[in-house]
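Morning. Coffee machine broken again, so started the prediction first thing and wrote up yesterday's gels while waiting. Chain of 80 residues, entered below exactly as on the submission form.
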Amino acid sequence: MKITVEQFKEFRDYVHDFYGKGGIYDLGCSIPDIENAIYVYFGKMALIDWLDWGDGDTVDRERVRAILEEDFGFEEIKLK
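Came back before lunch.
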């Protein structure tokens, strides 16, 4: 898998719009948190044959969310 820096930033920002502070499903993640989760995801793709890059689609975003929650301990912030 190979992506450009611009594609990485676009995907990072897409994930941030959903799970970053104030996002649609706010997990309270910062840009560095999201970048680190994406790096973990890329590492998993390198090791797991059936795990493919979907060009930054919804499935990729949701897989990064799972890493943010399961590996990094983030939870969705619910407004009261």
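Residues 5-70 form one domain. Going to sketch it on the whiteboard this afternoon.
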